[in-house]
Design a protein that fits this description.
heterodimer; A: about 120 residues; mainly alpha; 4 helices; about 0% strand; B: about 425 residues; 14 helices; globular
Chain lengths: ~120, ~425
């Protein structure tokens, strides 16, 4: 019951947290001047007119970083239960955790050797 | 009619005793708690912006805001009023819904972290059993908001800035989460109150300084503060992902950033500096609020000092520092720390549960952990130094071949 109340708190928090930033923006919308024109609404590029489409293809490097991040992020989440139960683990479970971290290191070394971590 | 004195914790049972419906009373106390917890950072941030501007001004040999109110204290309010009356331009071709959503997400996600901050032994928003995981989850929405803001603006510079920022935030999340594993290992829990209570005998920053440093530096990068403020590289990207924002939406981005820095300071204080622990906190739990505030102020001022004195890194340097130094270091740190904890258990150095809050009883295990951390840190610093020397010598050799003088600042790649 107590824990359920904690989660109810988080739920109410999620609902209310949006109100705090939304209120001033709505307030500003009520009082601020609204006189847009085509020149004002131009994309700002230090005075140069925009050429071509904005939503261009991006460099593959970002994708590789994303992949490396994904590997680590997902695997690290699995380490948290291991860390929480750490004091009660026997040597086998302890070694299993070590093995898991070594696999993680292996992924890092592989990415490193393959030059996936170079910013080109 | 009973009077409800300690309203924050006992409002609901008190109202029920006064004859209210139990559900209504519960909801009312929940709402009140949420508003109180969320207002603390909101009010503090108004003061913090003033402190930050004064601090930066002093370092740059200026006076800083001094016109509005005594010592310029009301400057933030004046700024807010100004932003309220500024015209807000949505560029043509922008994705209107996402464009308006991004500043709101920015601010809301930072506020959400405050739900799990333990202010005193008794006062905490929600003492979730997975507090750390909650922080990681809510914190990662930060990357989403950058992408939404940059993508929806229909501006190339904004998009480029967003890409860079995402690469940076996402990369530094890895050592940050790995560093968070260390307190969890030592406390055996992910709940924020448990993590704080476990520091009764000794703060975690003494038991694992490396984890504290990694967490701190990774969070500096997450908040986008100098030396990691590539997202607002003025000359290359004009301003980064929020270039097209004006008026109060821009203000929300700024306020969100200030609050993020403050939140990081609080989290560092809670996780590594003992949170609300301090003298007499056993007798008077409300004192914890003051101790936490003091520790937070120290961390916060330290962050301001770094922001105003350290020059900006290049993007490839930032990435190299993270993936080739901090990630390997934090992985090895977890291995060493967990091994040392096993060793301490095997040697019987861990204090008995009833002595857990005693400083002397904690000393033996602290010394073992501290020694392990220092040795590990020394090894990694030595490796870094050697690598730097190799690079410098290669640079100099190249310069000799080209017939030029050796470059003075040899830190081409760090």
């Amino acid at each position: 019951m107590e824990t359920l109340n904690e989660w109810a708190f988080v739920g109410v928090f999620f609902a209310i947290a949006w109100v705090f930033p939304a209120l001033p923006i709505i307030g500003a919308w009520l009082v601020r001047p609204k006189k847009p024109n085509a020149l004002k609404k131009q994309t700002y590029e230090s005075g140069v007119e925009t050429v071509g489409d904005t939503w261009v293809q991006f460099r593959v490097q970002y994708y590789i970083y994303g992949l490396v991040f994904l590997i680590f992020d997902v695997e690290m989440i699995f380490l948290f239960p291991w860390a929480v139960a750490y004091e009660r683990l026997d040597w086998f479970a302890y070694g299993a955790g070590f093995l898991f971290i070594f696999l993680l290191t292996d992924a890092l070394i592989y990415a490193w050797r393959k030059r996936a971590l170079e910013w080109v | 009619m009973t009077t409800c004195v300690d309203i924050i914790n006992t409002l609901s049972p008190c109202l029920v005793r006064a004859g209210w419906n139990a559900d209504v009373a519960n909801l009312l106390s929940l709402l009140l708690g949420v508003v109180i917890v969320a207002t603390v950072p909101l009010l503090t941030v108004i003061l913090l912006i003033w402190i930050e501007r004064k601090f930066a001004a002093r370092i740059q040999d200026r006076i800083g805001p001094n016109r509005v109110g005594p010592y310029g204290l009301l400057q933030s309010l004046a700024d807010a009023l100004k932003m309220l009356t500024k015209e807000d331009i949505t560029p043509s071709g922008a994705d209107r819904i996402l464009f308006n959503l991004a500043p709101i997400i920015t601010f809301a996600t930072v506020v959400l972290i405050w739900a799990i901050i333990p202010f005193t032994p008794l006062h905490i928003g929600a003492d979730l059993s997975i507090g750390i995981l909650y922080f990681v989850a809510v914190g990662s929405i930060g990357a989403v908001k950058v992408m939404i803001g940059g993508w929806s603006s229909n501006n190339k510079y904004a998009l480029l800035g967003a890409f860079r920022t995402i690469a940076l935030i996402v990369s530094y999340e890895v050592p940050m989460i790995l560093a968070l594993l260390v307190p969890v290992l030592m406390a055996g829990s992910m709940g924020m109150q448990d993590l704080t209570r476990a520091q009764g005998g000794m703060w975690f920053i003494v038991m694992s300084p490396l984890a504290a440093i990694i967490f701190f530096v990774a969070n500096l990068a997450e908040t986008g503060r100098s030396p990691f403020d590539l997202l607002e590289a003025e000359s290359e990207l004009i301003a980064g992902y929020n270039i097209e924002y004006s008026g109060f939406k821009f203000g929300m981005f700024m306020a969100g950033e200030f609050m993020h820095v403050f939140t990081v300071a609080v989290l560092t204080a809670v996780l590594f500096l003992g949170g609300w622990w301090g003298p007499f906190v056993d007798q008077l739990p409300a004192l914890g609020f003051i101790w936490l505030g003091l520790k937070t102020a120290v961390v916060y001022l330290f962050m301001l000092l770094i922001r105003n004195t350290v020059p900006r890194f290049r993007i490839d340097q930032v990435m190299n520092i993270n993936w080739k130094f901090m990630v390997p270091l934090s992985i090895v740190l977890i291995l060493v720390q967990s091994f040392l904890l096993r060793l301490i258990d095997a040697l019987g150095l861990r204090p008995a549960p009833e002595m857990a809050n005693d400083l002397l009883a904690n000393l033996p295990q602290t010394l073992v952990l501290l020694a392990g951390n220092l040795v590990l840190g020394a090894i990694f610093m030595h490796l870094l130094q050697r690598h730097g020397r190799t690079l410098r010598e290669a640079d100099e050799a190249l310069a000799v071949v080209k017939g030029e003088a050796a470059p003075s600042g040899g830190l081409a790649e760090a």
